C-alpha cells in the first residue's frame, strides 16, 4: 500500500487564494499528469470495499473523479449539482453555509431505492456540502456505503462529521495545515 506521496506531490499549493491565510490545494496540476490521474482514480476506487451500484459526484470537481471511478467500478454516475442546473424533475436539500444557505439537487429518477452509493469529491473540508449530499442520497432512498476524497483537510473536521453520520470516509492525501 502506498502512502500517496506521489499524488500529494502533484497537488499544487497556492497561498492566499481565494483570500489571505488560505492555502488553496489545486488539483489541476494532478489532472495534467496522466500517471498521477490514473493512480488517483485507481486508489479512490479501492478505498471502500463495495460493492456499489452507483457513484455520486459532487459538482464540479467531483464529476471528474466520480466519472472515472464509476467507470473503474462498472457503475453509472449520479450528478449532484447546485440548485437550478439540472433539467427535469429533481429532489433537493438545503444546507447551511458560513453565511447563509445553499441547495443541491439531483434528478429524482437517478437512483433506485435501496441502491448502494459511493460519494466522490476532490476535497473534504468542513463537510457541509458532502453531508448535504449524503442527506440528498438518503432522501432518494439510497444507502451511502462510503465517501472518498482525493484531499482531506482534517483540521476542518469534515471527515469526522461524515464518519459520525455513519458513513465510512477515506481520503488519499491529508493536508494538516488547511
UniProtKB/TrEMBL annotation:
Membrane spanning residue stretches: 62-80
Annotated metabolic or biological route of this protein: Purine metabolism; AMP biosynthesis via salvage pathway; AMP from adenine: step 1/1
One Pfam family recorded for the sequence: Pribosyltran
EC number(s) stated in the UniProt entry for this protein: 2.4.2.7
Keyword entries, A-Z: Cytoplasm, Glycosyltransferase, Membrane, Purine salvage, Transferase, Transmembrane, Transmembrane helix
A biological process term (GO) from this entry: AMP salvage
Catalysed reaction equations from the record: AMP + diphosphate = 5-phospho-alpha-D-ribose 1-diphosphate + adenine
Segments forming domain Phosphoribosyltransferase: 37-152
Localisation per UniProt entry: Cytoplasm
Domain of life: Bacteria
GO molecular-function terms, A-Z: adenine phosphoribosyltransferase activity
GO cellular component, one term: cytoplasm
Record bears the keyword Membrane: yes
Main location as per UniProt: cytoplasm
InterPro entries cross-referenced by the UniProt entry: Ade_phspho_trans, Adenine_PRTase, PRTase-like, PRTase_dom
Gene3D superfamilies: 3.40.50.2020
The keyword Membrane belongs to this UniProt entry's keyword annotation: yes
Subunit structure: Homodimer.
Chain's role: Catalyzes a salvage reaction resulting in the formation of AMP, that is energically less costly than de novo synthesis.
Family membership noted in the UniProt record: Belongs to the purine/pyrimidine phosphoribosyltransferase family.
Protein's recorded name: Adenine phosphoribosyltransferase
Native organism: Edaphosphingomonas laterariae
Gene responsible for this protein: apt
